[in-house]
């Protein structure tokens, strides 16, 4: 009897193979090489000093600002008035042109905006505080006597 050579072909009765996945197709292409590209020793290196200078000049963003932050918010007007004596503060309030205009507007019966009314109220309470501190009595009825 003659000998038959074995083959790798499965024939019609064998289970079919699964189709190749896209991942398998990528592997068939050019493989990613290891190491540096050819001619790497002969090519000039990029300027590393420039990159180091940029990194050295740029402050670390994590450190934040060194500017001191006040713990209590204070308006600029409050800072200015602290240096003055109560008598000087009282004089400033009496000579405040904006306050005088708003008071005249209020006396004429015109309606003040919310911001204007807030300003008048703040200055009036401060005036009363200074007057009480200096021992000046405020008469509410002084208009009636005149």
UniProtKB/TrEMBL annotation:
<dbReference type="Pfam" id="PF04220">
    <property type="entry name" value="YihI"/>
</dbReference>
<dbReference type="InterPro" id="IPR007336">
    <property type="entry name" value="YihI"/>
</dbReference>
<keyword id="KW-0343">GTPase activation</keyword>
<dbReference type="GO" id="GO:0042254">
    <property type="term" value="P:ribosome biogenesis"/>
</dbReference>
<protein>
    <recommendedName>
        <fullName>Der GTPase-activating protein YihI</fullName>
    </recommendedName>
</protein>
<feature type="compositionally biased region" description="Basic and acidic residues">
    <location>
        <begin position="21"/>
        <end position="30"/>
    </location>
</feature>
<keyword id="KW-0690">Ribosome biogenesis</keyword>
<feature type="region of interest" description="Disordered">
    <location>
        <begin position="1"/>
        <end position="86"/>
    </location>
</feature>
<dbReference type="GO" id="GO:0005096">
    <property type="term" value="F:GTPase activator activity"/>
</dbReference>
């Amino acid at each position: 009897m003659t000998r038959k050579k074995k083959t790798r072909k499965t024939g019609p009765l064998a289970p079919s193979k699964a189709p190749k996945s896209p991942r398998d197709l990528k592997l068939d292409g050019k493989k990613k090489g290891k190491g540096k590209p050819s001619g790497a020793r002969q090519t000039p290196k990029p300027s590393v000093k420039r990159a180091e200078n940029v990194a050295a000049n740029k402050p670390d963003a994590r450190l934040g600002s060194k500017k001191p932050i006040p713990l209590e918010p204070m308006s600029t007007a409050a800072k200015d008035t602290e240096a003055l004596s109560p008598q000087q503060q009282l004089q400033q309030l009496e000579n405040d042109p904006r306050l005088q205009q708003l008071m005249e507007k209020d006396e004429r019966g015109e309606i003040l905006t919310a911001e204007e009314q807030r300003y008048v109220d703040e200055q009036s309470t401060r005036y009363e505080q200074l007057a009480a501190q200096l021992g000046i009595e405020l008469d509410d009825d002084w208009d009636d006597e005149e």
